[in-house]
Amino acid sequence: MPTALITGASRGIGAAMTRELTARSFDTIGTSTKGGDGLYPLDVTDPQGPAALAQTLSGTPIDLLVCNAGLYLDQGQSLATGYPAEMWAKEFAVNITGVFLTVQAFLPALRAAQGKIAIISSQMASHTRAPGGSYIYRSSKAAALNLGRNLATDLRPEGIAVGIYHPGWVKTDMGGAGAEITPEAAATGLSDRFDALSIATTGCFETWDGRDHAY
Ligand SMILES: NC(=O)c1ccc[n+]([C@@H]2O[C@H](COP(=O)([O-])OP(=O)(O)OC[C@H]3O[C@@H](n4cnc5c(N)ncnc54)[C@H](OP(=O)(O)O)[C@@H]3O)[C@@H](O)[C@H]2O)c1
Questions:
Q1: Which of 87, 133, 142, 147 is the one with CA 20 to 30 A from 127?
Q2: Quick check: CB of 33 below 6 Å from ligand 1?
Q3: Residue with CA nearest ligand 1 atom 26
Q4: Model's pTM, two decimal places?
Q5: How far is the CA of 157 from the centre of ligand 1 (A)?
Q6: pLDDT, tens digit (0-9, with 9 covering 90-100), for 34-67
Q7: DSSP H helical segments within 24-157, as ranges?
Q8: Ligand 1: which of 28, 68, 92, 137 to mutate, most ligand atoms within 8 Å of CB?
Q9: Does the CB atom of residue 119 touch ligand 1 within 6 A?
Q10: Alpha-carbon distance 186 to 96, whole Å?
Q11: Upper half-sphere CA count for residue 116 (Cβ side, 13 Å)
Q12: CA separation for the pair 26, 186 (Å, rounded)
């Protein structure tokens, strides 16, 4: 049975993906900041957090690593007076440093399975689509896209494919009740994308429903 590790599995898209991947016969390992309810504790902003979890899992080969944990604090901030430095630090710690540390900690486990890496970025990562505002979230998700593209180059020789995804505008705590799709629809579409991801498509930036996204 293949194993999938999903960060931020306590709610929203991460919880739905964990259910969907379990239904697709993955052995799933979900994480949340507090742990409990069958989830492993992982705060991706703790510099030792991902490495400590990798140690707890003692080398279990990982076929699919889904870097899903994310934070969006700067919605509606004022350009003139908002976006304090502390907000930049908090959001970047989760959305980009946390992704890198998680990938780094689980590289041996990914190598053991010749696994795949899925980074949940956003359409807000796109440079060509730039409606303004939400500067911290947009730039952190753009950094996650860039990280994924460069990891794809470095890990290609090892047969480890990396995909970067926009999950849709999803009805979660982050997306809000007015969003377009359910977490279940996002999870189904994303799981199809993970299935299709290969060395031939490594470095792709795709939407949950299978379209190439503009960079
Ligand atoms: N919803 C959308 O419309 C949308 C659109 C584009 C992209 N995305 C991206 O999709 C991903 C999931 O979003 P969502 O809508 O499901 O968000 P959500 O409902 O707010 O859930 C966020 C998840 O991230 C976890 N998390 C937050 N800070 C963390 C930390 N320091 N360490 C570890 N885990 C942490 C949370 O864990 P706790 O419960 O333990 O706090 C929770 O499981 C995010 O990367 C988000 O940026 C979402």
A1: 87
A2: yes
A3: 69
A4: 0.98
A5: 31
A6: 999 899 999 999 999 999 999 999 989 999 999 9
A7: 49-56, 85-92, 98-105, 107-113, 135-155
A8: 68
A9: no
A10: 21
A11: 23
A12: 18
Residue 51 corresponds to which amino acid? A
Residue in this structure with the two tokens 């993955």, named with its chain if needed: 26
Mean residue pLDDT of the chain comes to 97
Tell which residue, 175, 170, 164, has the closest CA to residue 186: 170
Give the amino acid at 138: R
What backbone phi and psi angles, to 5 degrees, belong to 153?
A: -65, -45
Element (H, E) at 20: helix 12-23
* Residue 2, CA atoms < 13 Å, CB-side half-sphere: 18
CA distances from 64 to 109, 132, 194 (A): 10, 34, 8
Structure tokens at 153: 């180059």
